[in-house]
Amino acid sequence: MRRSERIVRLTQTLLEQPYRLLSLTEMADQLSSAKSSLSEDLSIIRDVLSKEGTGILETHAGAAGGVRYIPRIPAWQVQDFVQEMCRILADPERILPGGYLYISDILGQPDVLDRAGRIFAHIFSEMEADYVLTVETKGIPLAVSTARYLHLPTVVVRRDHRVTEGSAVSINYVSGSRRIQTMSLSRRSLPEHSRVLIIDDFMKAGGTAKALIDMMKEFKTAVAGIGVFMSTSEPEDKMLEDYVSLTTLAHVDEISREIQVSKGNFKLSDKER
C-alpha cells in the first residue's frame, strides 16, 4: 500500500471513531504495515490536525496502548456557525402565535446538527461524562450528534412511562410555560454513580433542565454539564446558573415582526479565539 493511501485510510478511521482508543497493532495488521511506519504516518496526521485546529491525537504507550482522536473545532468556525444561526433564526417568518419561535426545521438539518454536536463535544470534552442525557423529542438529534463526537451512549428521558422499559423513576415538574409535566426514565438505562452531560434544544426558565438534575439525584448520578442550542434572555433569573447556550433569544415582537437573536453565553479561551 502506498503511503499516501495509508495516510488517507488512517485519517478516515480516526475521524469516524472519535475518542476511541485504537490499537496500533490491529491497525498495522489491517493495513499490512509496520508499526514504525504507522507511527510516522500518525505524526504527519497529528501535525495537520494541530495546524488546522481540528483535533488532537493522543498516543498511549504499552501493550494495551494505541492512539485516540479528540475532535476540536477552530474558533472561527464556531463564530461563523453561531452568526449563521442568528441570521437564520431572525427571519420574521419564524414567528408563531403567542410569540414563539419555530426552530424545528433547523434542528432537522444534518449539517447543523453535526456542527452543533461538534461544538458541544469541544466545550465539554474535559467533563469526563459517561452518558449524554436528553428529554424527548426535539433535543434527541442534537444529543445524538454530541454523543457521537464524545463516543458516548445517549439516554433519553420520556414524557411518559412505557411498559416495555420496565421499572422507572417518574417525577413531576413545572415547565417554562408554568405547566405541570411529567418525565420518566427506566432504571435500567442509567447505572448509578455515573456522570451525565445534559443536551437540549431550548431553555426558557430552566424548568426542564432543573427537573433532569433532580431526576439524576434519584439515580445517584452527577451532572457534568448542561448545553442548549438556544436559551432566552428572559427570565434573567433561571432555575439554574451553570449552563452553556450557543444562541440567545432576546426579543420576539409579533406586531413589528422583529426577532433579536444573539450569541449565547459560551466562552472560548484566549488561546482559542
UniProtKB/TrEMBL annotation:
State the source organism's domain of life.
Bacteria
Which stretches make up the Bacterial purine repressor N-terminal domain?
Answer: 2-71
Q: Which organism is it from?
A: Effusibacillus lacus
Similarity remark: Belongs to the purine/pyrimidine phosphoribosyltransferase family. PurR subfamily.
Q: How does it assemble?
A: Homodimer.
**What's the name of the protein?**
Pur operon repressor
**A Gene Ontology biological process annotation?**
negative regulation of purine nucleobase metabolic process
Database matches in SUPFAM superfamilies: PRTase-like, Winged helix' DNA-binding domain
In this protein, which residues make up the domain named Phosphoribosyltransferase?
Answer: 105-250
Give the Pfam families listed for this entry: Pribosyltran, PuR_N
Q: Which UniProt keywords apply?
A: DNA-binding, Transcription, Transcription regulation
Question: Which Gene Ontology terms cover its molecular function?
Answer: DNA binding
